[in-house]
Amino acid sequence: MKKNIIKTGLLAIMSVAAVSCIDLDTAPYDRETDLTAWDKPESAINGVNACYPTMISAEELLYADAMSDNAYTKVNNTLNQAIGNGSYSTAHNYVKLVWDSRYAGIRVCNKLLGNIDKVPGLSDELRERYRGEARVIRDFHYFELLSKFGDVPYFTNDISIAQSQSIARTPKAEIVEKLLTDLSQVIDSECLPSAYGDTDKGRITRWAAMGLKARILLFEGRWGELKEVTGRIMQEGPFSLFPSYSGLFEVANENNQEVILDLQYIALDREQNEQYEFLPPSLGGYAQLAPLQELVDDYVMLNGKGIHETGSGYSESQPYVNRDPRLAATIAYTGNSYTLADGTEHVINCDRESVPDGFGYSSDCSPTGYYIKKYWDKTYRSTHMSGLNMIILRYADVLLMHAEALAELGQLDASAWNKTIRLIRERAGFVDATALDFPGGGTEALKNIVRRERRCELALEGLRHKDIIRWKTAENVLNGWCHGLKTGDVVGADNGYVRIENRVFNPAKHYLWPIPQNERDLNKNLTQNPSW
């Protein structure tokens, strides 16, 4: 049985968001206002439940990789295509959507935090737990904002319209310190439980707060502190890697020992239909979002070597043979298959003009010749409605963050490797000692290995864009043509690999998004980011 938060209804959200426009001594009879919205015992649970849907949607999580060198979305002006190719402006809809939705989420959290003391019949323990949940969600929103916009307005109370039209941007470094302090207070106070019962799965735990703190430290490159936080989760936490990499993303295995935080869905009651946007036509999909060749190429061979390394054994005529098993679990290519509900294998053919899934056969086909397999829900019902949870944070990410911190500090040795990268590769299905044993080499070589491991383990989970931004490698991987499968064409291809999109990333400009122009029109105190 899933948690209570999926039951949040419109009435609960409206109750939290209700605003009294006039200062009256008595409340209207026909609607909730701040005078009445918090005077019932259920007001607190309704208020904190309303915070959760604001965190992230399945669509936002999935499409985040289209802003990176992992994926491409084929529909012009849809969601974030312009972010990936560098053509967005200060008036771009997706930039505005992210800004608006994050501040809407912050407002919901601030409303709860500012009014929870008014709720009657609430124990101190439960009141503090609800506060902790809302604070972590608010910190999540601010992290999403600062990782894209840099300096942004920061406030922890419910501000008026007039205040919102005059508030200035707070320096990013100052916000980071506030978030880390806030998360540390929540963690140390132990107001959040380490786990919940079956009816509350998906709520923010103490470990999720630690995981968010780790993500912020990772983005900021604060390696010593990151090492401590991830090490604490590894030593004290109840988590381990789920035995099957592909099984990790199946409905039957939800809420397993690897999941620290996820976006919860349940068939019929609360569903998402992202399946339609990445499946092949033979399964009723439109393949609007598709993996790129650049991602496919980064999966190593079973011996741990990159495909272009001497001795890798890679053959361009058999490009998927003896590759990292996570490639087949993540991306559908010619000869790969989707397991159906009855146990049969649905094999696809992505070769040019192959009916019905082949590259170029129809507008429903993948624009790159590859389809997404991760997140395939064989239990989906008609119109591709799915109750599959979308994972926001899992234990493998903690291990990878820990390994990266150690690599950056020059401390990644055989012992640390065996507790992080080796475990991840063993779970993936590697058995060759050359892939599992500590590779040695200098700091730079180890950093590159960890970065590649992170890309392949977490592919299409919404993290790649932040990674190439913080590594400052976006200027290298988002400039020039991105590619699809090899067709052998001479025209419209590079070395036979079809050209998909010519991307531009200006390092003097694109490491930060622009402050939306409509916000600056309303608030003259909002400065703009460089070169925008």
List the helices and strands and how they pair.
Elements: H1 10-17, H2 43-51, H3 58-63, E1 71-73, H4 81-85, H5 93-115, H6 124-149, H7 161-164, H8 172-189, H9 206-220, H10 223-236, E2 259-263, E3 289-291, H11 293-298, H12 325-330, E4 331-332, E5 337-339, E6 345-347, E7 371-372, E8 390-394, H13 395-408, H14 414-419, H15 421-428, H16 433-436, H17 443-457, H18 464-470, H19 474-477, E9 480-486, E10 493-494, E11 497-503, H20 517-522
Antiparallel strand pairs: 1-3, 2-8, 4-7, 5-6, 9-11, 10-11
What is shown here, in short?
With 532 residues, this protein is mainly alpha-helical. It has 20 helices and 11 strands.
Describe the protein:
The chain has 532 residues and is mostly helical. It contains 20 helices and eleven strands. Strand 5 and strand 6 form a beta hairpin. The longest helix has 26 residues. 44% of the residues are buried. The N terminus is likely disordered.
Question: What distinguishing features does this structure have?
Answer:
two-stranded antiparallel sheet, 532 residues, mainly alpha, 3-stranded antiparallel β-sheet, 20 helices
How far is it from the N-terminal to the C-terminal residue, by CA? Answer: 49 Å
- How are the strands of the biggest sheet laid out side by side? 9-11-10
Percent helix = 25-40%
Number of strands: 11
Structural class designation: mainly alpha
Based on CA atoms alone, the radius of gyration comes out at: 24 Å
Strand coverage percent: 5-15%
Instruction: Count every helix, treating DSSP H or I runs of 4 or more residues as helices.
Output: 20
Average of the residue pLDDT scores: 93
